[in-house]
Specification:
This protein is mainly α. It has 17 helices and four strands. The strands form two sheets. The protein has a two-stranded antiparallel sheet with strand order 1-2. Strands 3-4 form a two-stranded antiparallel sheet.
Amino acid sequence: MGSALNLCLRIRRKMPGFVDLVFTLFRWLFNGVNPLWRWVTSFPGVRFLPRLPLPWWTRSGSASDEETGTEDDFTGDEYKADQADEFYCEYDSSWETEPGESSQPKRARYSGGLRNNNFSRFQNAARDMQKYRNATNVILQEYRTATELNSTTKSEEPQELHTMPNLSFYLGKTPSLPDGVYIKDFHHSWKGKYNQLERVHTFIQWLFPLQEPGMNYEAKILTRKEIEEFRRSDVAKENLLESYKLMLDFYGIAFKDGTAELIRADNWMERFENLNRHTHNNLRITRILKCLGTLGYPHYQAPLVRFFLEETLVNKELPNVKESALNYFVFAVLDKRERRKLLHFAYEHYEPKSQFVWCPKKIQDVWSARSEEPKMTERDGWTETSVLNK
């Protein structure tokens, strides 16, 4: 097989245009027959074929993958969800190309053992996260439509503020209940009070309100009108960002150079130990992620999830956060392309890969095949494997 690979690559180096055309047409012919295509590309000599572009006349849209940068977004035909896949989840739209979140797929059969248990837990979590994404996307679409119809995107303080307890709290008009703490007092007096932030359970619903109830019966759920007015208010959104910073500090996390990217804070060892010990914080983090997406900061979701994936899967520092990160955190991200990137990162670093259940098996096979490709080096205008230099 090694000599065949050498011959193939030498021919392609001597006649790049002709052979590229042959390989591209070969891929185009077989790409629609996914099982056969995966079998063909499993041979070492042709594993690089999935990377070759399809002919321009077979692509949808006016721009190529290279021009639009969609390769990193995992939007090619090989990433389309197959409802008969071993790990197709009916509550996850990450790999669906059609707009919308809901779907009515066929139930897939999957293997037993630990993978079975992992997949069952994932499905149960995915159901909750799909409800959140569906509800939030509907409201955000309504908000965008209303904004386009109005000449201004910001509004004065709404007259019916008394019917919006969460917005009133974030504007500093009313305190939280039952603690009686105003938003600025949380930001200034509670920062660094780690024992207080850990032991008090009534504040989190006020700092990060959602459209779903929590444990504090004196906190109120968000209404659609309240979400719309909140997103229009600079004061409310600035205060929400301060609340996010408060909790990041509590978890031992800090912003990197004024960007949305996150790094370990100076006190990360102490705070990580607390996070591992008190797993109810996983529920808090899920709430924070949902709130960021609902109230105007969806671009902060993926960096927070990426941070926890790196700490759990790469650095092995937060083992008791790992399951929540995979089942809940990733799927709180509203941006479908960002979810795909996060899942790819998770798959790359998850061990053992035989127990990874958070995306379809077909897509896992594509990623595995690409990770097994020989490293390529540039020479004579063509990339060929180091085997030619041996």
